[in-house]
Amino acid sequence: MVSTFFYFGLSNMFSPLKNSITILVHGFNKNSRDMAFLEKGLGESGFATISVDLPARFGTMDACVKALHLQVRNEIGEYQTVNFVAHSMGGLITRFYINHVQLAGVGKCVFIATPHNGSRLAGLAGRVPFYSRIFQTLNPILPGSGFEPPPLPEGTRLGLIAGNNDRSLLGRMFLSEQNDGRIEVSSVESKDADEFIVLPYGHKDIHHQQETLALVSNFLQKGTFVNS
């Protein structure tokens, strides 16, 4: 089900935000409820949003892209600009979607803890028999997969947020670099990013933080994390 949240305060009636819509994309093994904090916060700030539900547990990347397209295609045509906010695998799904449908009017993207350079933990899990066949969404980020994230359209502003919280047992046991307990900071980096910032949060809670919401809101409005 698509969850759409619109806020039309009088102070925002003539805001440039009315010409844009922001699509929120959850990550692996989650659904739209996992993006509810950001959706609510952005809605209260005057953003029109759509939060999607994708088969991101057992489905393939193609299935996720198709589901995303079906849920937003009738909504985005009403807006001049389409923005994206995604967590974890949702960032990669977003890239595939934009590239697959050759989406026009993409303005800004904020990807939070997205493993652009693969996942060491996913690689370890992939050694378990049949794991990669069951959880097919993870296949692109397995070490040695040869995966390279599709590029975003020229002119799109991209902001990346990584977490650096070493309190996770999994992170301490299996990840040698700075990490959010699931994804290493270095894996979040991407050569096409306009801005990159690291926050002291874990993978599961970084997108439920007020600080993250403030950075996302600022980037969507101004194209920068810097609040100047």
Task: Please explain how this structure is put together.
The protein has eight helices and seven strands; from the N terminus they run E-E-H-E-H-E-H-E-H-H-E-H-H-E-H. By secondary structure, it is of the alpha/beta class. A seven-stranded mixed beta sheet has the order 1-3-2-4-5-6-7, with helices on both faces. Strand 2 (20-25), helix 1 (36-44) and strand 3 form a beta-alpha-beta unit.
Top keywords for this entry?
single chain, 228 residues, alpha/beta, seven-stranded mixed sheet, disordered N terminus
Q: Estimate the helix proportion, in percent.
A: 25-40%
Overall pLDDT metric: 83
Biggest sheet character: 7 strands, mixed
Q: Strand order across the biggest sheet?
A: 1-3-2-4-5-6-7
What's the total helix number? 8
Order of helices and strands: EEHEHEHEHHEHHEH
3D shape: globular
Unreliable parts: 1-14, 123-132
Number of strands: 7
Distance between the termini: 38 Å
Class based on secondary structure composition and strand pairing: alpha/beta
Tell me which oligomeric state these chains represent.
Answer: single chain
Strand content: 15-25%
Backbone CA Rg: 17 Å
